[in-house]
Amino acid sequence: MLTLFGMSLVIFVLLRLAPGNIVDILFDSAGYVSEADKALIERELGIDKPVWAQYVDWLRAVVTGDLGKSYRYDQPAWQLIKPMIPVTVELAFLSMVISVLLGVPTGVVSAVRQDTGLDYVLRVFSIAGLSMPSFWLGMVIILSLVGWLGWIPPMIYVSPAEDLKLHLVQFLLPALAVGYRSSALIMRITRSAMLEVLREDYVRTAWAKGQSGRAVVWRHALKNAILPVVTVIGIEFAFLIGGLVVTETVFNLPGVARFLVEAILWRDYPIVQNLVMFIAIVVVLSNLVVDMLYGVLDPRVRYG
Amino acid sequence: MHGARTLSLVALSLVLAVVAVGTPAVAQAPKYGGILNLAQRADPAQGFAIHETGTIDVVWPASPCFNNLVYFDPLKKQESLDTIIGDLAEKWSWQDNYRNLVFFLRRGVKWHDGTPFTSKDVKYTFDMIREAPDAQAKLRINPRKAWYANVEAIEAADPYTVVFRLKRPQPSLIAMLASGYSPVYPAHVPPAEFRTRCVGTGPFKLKEWRKGEYIDYVKNPDYFVKGRPYLDGLRFVVIKELGTRVAAVQAGQLDASFPGDVSGTRAEALKKAVPQLVITKSAQNVNDNLIMNTKKPPFDQVKVRLALSLAIDRAEYVKTVHQGTDAIVGASMAPKPYGVWGLLEKDVKTLPGYGKAEANRAQARKLLAEAGFTASKPLKVEMGTRAIAIYVSFASFVVDQLKRVGVEAELKQFETAQWHPKVTRRDYELGANLTGIGPDDPDANFFENYSCGSPRNYTDYCNEQVMKMMEAQSQELDPKKRLALVWQIQKKLELDVARPVMGWRIGYHTEWPYVKNLVPHQSIYNWARMQEVWLDKK
Q1: Which residue in A88, A106, B208, B529 has its CB near the most CB atoms, within 10 A?
Q2: Residue A78, class by beta-carbon neighbours within 10 Å (0-12 exposed, 13-18 middle, 19+ buried)?
Q3: pLDDT digits over B303-356, tens only?
């Protein structure tokens, strides 16, 4: 709670330190300015008050469940944000699934086959993933599809209830673009953790006992090497919630990340504050889940 | 490289020529039905509140909801006073030597909520815009008040007759009324509500606006024009990323592009990939111009401004910044063959920044030296611009050109939220600016952008002689004499370096061949009603 309170304060102040406000942008789109009209709108929106007074107003509203109204859309913030949350969470989740499915096995194989041709190929694959920004990869995917097949995924969000197959098609490509980049990171962490563990005495003992390669690698080594990987997965998931902006833009998915950046550009304070708080909550929760997983994966870690 | 570019330009011109020639001349019988899917580059900033905005992002998706008193004929490419047709006004008549404009309104027209449309709505709308003392409502932001500065009174003589009484004759007032920026609002709906919903009389009724996703319209079954619209509905799909938007047109998910989206190089690539796409080269009525703060020395001196204008090679600008395909040169009115009022090519060539670049630069250096700026004591300026690609490439080009005459310009990029307050506070020296003009008419352009005290006159240029010329052209009844006056004003504005124009933007409207009657005009703001559009699909 203390973290969230601190976050809310930092975001609130930082946002107001940025020059310009939504009224400047509205007048810009009209191509002129009238100081009297500008002052009137600022009063109407409550942004003429001192920052501390605005913060108190906002905090008071939030504790009563009122997230405020979007300045840009003139609609309750929650009404706008609500349908976007599942889109981003699903995309982040699918991306993580893809990155784990790609990253963990390739990391293990790369470590087991250290310094072989296969290891080199997998390392190149992972470095390429780290070097390619996911939005660039997304754009390449879109342009290749339209160039070769004359087809791109749907540009309007298709809910799973509407058409599950089309929904998966719509999410799979962006998830692949994002998941590939994250998988590279997971692969590198898995590989280095595995290399460390594979040199441990208990692994040598397992080999000496005549256990099968599969059992040694997957049951004994990986289980002990997985803790740093889980940490990275947790951090990546939290990062993705806010970091999917360009992928959502390229694939035209109506998620919170894209909406957040637009809201920042528009200085739509209620939307920005609420979305940042949402992301902060996800970060806190994913850290909590990771901490709990430590206890499950490593019997030495127990919370009393 | 140069040869390849020339070749590709020739190829593009040929392709466009073939497209134009290949269009069947035989009129087909329109078909009813279907949904037209259109590109939309962003959520409309002020919803459907056209009167509170100055951006195509609102006019494009909001126009199908409304009607004007009069409108530019959607089927004619080039707009002029002669292409204006009745919309909510069945007919109109100029009286008292162009001092009174009388509109005779259609009967039986209903707003989308069922309320009857009358002359009260017309009076309400235009009194609100011109901020008449007895106006019944006030707009939060009112960008086009200046258009109606010459209106003395509006009278609703009876429910179906409206009279606009003018202070002096102004034949082109009707051009402003025909613009996509001039819909009639209902008197019974507060103007603030248009930011979230739309009640118009237009051919389409707003069905749903899913923020960040799409805007859906359905056919208005009670539309006052019998047999219109042809379409069952419209869908404006919001796609922020330009590359994705164009890809969606190419893939057939969208039936037509967003105005101004497709550049010459993109048009060429699209035509190669999908030969059946119909691509029409059209103007936008948007120009790139350099703003110089005339209140800040040394830009209060005409000779310094002239030196800077001379230093920028306009032909090179079009070739470099717009690849030679996406802009054409011109002065302050849209050039021919797109615009009606533009200077003739031979006159444009005599303006500062045209002709031999080296000779112009030598003259610029001379003028700067006269103003006290030499190689040892160069003029140092800040060139400000928005941090948006189209502005940055424009500003970078200017910085480079100024360097060639010894001016040290430093490029500074600002977010829109920062840049606009700077310009309106006149807290800038030089700036890269884009100006979009509603109708292609001198009254809409001159008074807004060059008249003394106008809020959109960002350079604060003020010349009493030019003001008199503007007034004179505005009330000139003889079209030929008016055109001559407008040409004189344009030359004067360029020589005074009021706001030197770099070029006029050109777009390549792209649509699938089954889309019929969606005709781009020379101004992007005036052809989005969609009343006549139909789909040649089974």
Answers
A1: A88
A2: middle
A3: 999 999 999 999 999 999 999 999 999 999 999 999 999 999 999 999 999 999
- Local confidence band at B26 (pLDDT 50, 70, 90 cut-offs): low
**B196 with A73: Cβ contact below 8 A:** yes
Segment B395-411 mean pLDDT: 97
Using the predicted structure, report yes or no on whether residue B178 has a pLDDT greater than 90.
Answer: yes
Provide the total of helices (H) and of strands (E) in chain A, helices listed first: 15, 0
* Mean of the per-residue pLDDT values of chain A: 91
A49-78 residues touching B, CB cutoff 8 A: 72-75
Task: Say if the Cβ atoms of A30 and B420 lie within 8 Å.
Answer: no
Judged by CB atoms closer than 8 Å, whether chains meet at A26 and B252 is answered as: no
Cα–Cα distance, A225 to A193 (Å, whole number): 5
Nearest to B251 among A34, A151, A157 (CB): A151
Residues B435-446: what's their mean pLDDT?
Answer: 96
The pLDDT value given to residue A302: 67
A152 touches chain B (CB under 8 A): yes
Q: Work out how many CB contacts closer than 8 A connect A with B.
A: 144
Structure tokens at B276: 């059946």
Do residues A241 and A89 make contact, with C-beta atoms less than 8 angstroms apart?
A: yes
The ipTM is 0.89
CA distance linking residue B38 with residue B245, whole number of Å: 10
Strands B204-210 and B214-219: antiparallel
Residue of A20, A32, A80 with shortest CB distance to B211: A80
Chain B: give the shortest CA distance to residue A221, in Å. 45
Secondary structure of B361-384 as H, E, C letters: HHHHHHHHHHCCCCCCCCCEEEEE
- Nearest chain A residue to B181 by CA distance is A30
pLDDT in tens, A134-177: 888 999 999 999 999 999 999 999 999 999 999 999 999 999 99
Residue A156 three-state SS: coil
pLDDT tens-place string over residues B207-226? 999 999 999 999 999 999 99
Chain A from 4 to 43: CB within 8 A of any B CB: 18-22, 24-34, 37, 40-41
Report d(CA A97, CA A89) in Å as an integer.
12
Query: Phi and psi dihedrals of B47, rounded to 5?
Result: 60, -120
Q: Can you list the domains of chain A with their CATH numbers?
A: 2-66 (no CATH), 83-297 (1.10.3720.10)
Give the per-residue pLDDT at B300: 97
Q: Tell me whether residues A28 and B456 touch, CB distance under 8 A.
A: no
Is A287 at the interface with chain B, CB within 8 A?
A: no
Residues of B in contact with A30 (CB under 8 A): 52-54, 141-143
Task: Confirm or reject contact between A164 and chain B (CB < 8 A).
Answer: no
Nearest to A41 among B140, B420, B424 (CB): B140
CB contacts, 8 Å: B254 with chain A:
155
Q: Are B208 and B235 in contact (CB under 8 A)?
A: no
Map residue B156 onto helix, strand or coil.
strand
By CA distance, what is B455's nearest residue in A? A32
Paired residues of B85 in beta bridges: B71
3-state helix, strand, coil in chain A (%, to 5): 75, 0, 20
Query: To the nearest whole percent, how much of chain B has pLDDT over 90?
Result: 91
Backbone φ/ψ region at A46: left (φ over 0), alpha (ψ -120 to 50), beta: left
DSSP state string for B290-321: EEE-TTSTTTTSHHHHHHHHHHS-HHHHHHHH
Could you tell me the pLDDT band of residue B16, with boundaries at 50, 70 and 90? very low
Encoded tokens for B519: 């005709």
> Tokens 């799979």 map to which residue?
A172
